[in-house]
Amino acid sequence: MKIQTIENRMPELIGVLTQVWEDSVRATHHFLMPGDVERIKEYVPQAIGGIGKLAVAFNEQDRPVGFLGVEGEMIEMLFLDPAVRGNGLGRSMMDYAVKNFGASKVNVNEQNRGAKGFYEHMGFSVCRRTDTDDQGRPYPILYMELKRA
User: Fold this and answer.
1) Residue 149, pLDDT score
2) What is the mean pLDDT of residues 86-98?
3) pTM of the predicted model as reported, rounded to 2 decimal places
4) Strand 105-109 and strand 74-80: pairing?
5) Beta carbons of 115 and 74 less than 8 angstroms apart
């Protein structure tokens, strides 16, 4: 697998990454209410296209299998194709974000225990919590920061 920073965000790539997003969310965000994935998905292409820094992981066939987006120090998005989860790609992408983009913060849905555990394993700790997400939906958010040595 290779990870690279993407400057030119062509519609075809954004479409593939949106599908990666949907597959990832359906595999990990079981707490979402029916219809939430479809409603949120409407905004994903714009979010991918507008994020400050975008890195994409490509498999051996040069197919995108994961991506992350960073704005300032904040990792705004990290999504992996479910078929490649558990093989170290998430760790590699986080390392890439920290080293290349200066990322040191991330927000995670409290109900997404797997993601919370992953970020804790990567050295992040919870510094605050809200009862709702940014859109006011009843999905508590954990604000996490990278612990500095």
Assistant:
1) 58
2) 94
3) 0.90
4) parallel
5) no
Q: What is the pLDDT of residue 110?
A: 93
Shortest CA distance to 78 belongs to which of 91, 88, 67?
Answer: 67
Q: What is the C-alpha separation between 66 and 16, in angstroms, rounded?
A: 10
What is the pLDDT, as a whole number, of residue 71? 98
| CATH numbers and ranges of domains, the chain | 2-105 (3.40.630.30)
Cβ distance 79 to 66 under 8 Å? yes
Span 8-37, average pLDDT = 87
80-119 CB burial, b ≥16 within 10 A, e <16: bbeebbeeebbeebbebbbeebebbbbbbbbebeebbebb
d(CA 25, CA 19): 10
Angstrom distance (rounded) from CA 63 to CA 29: 23
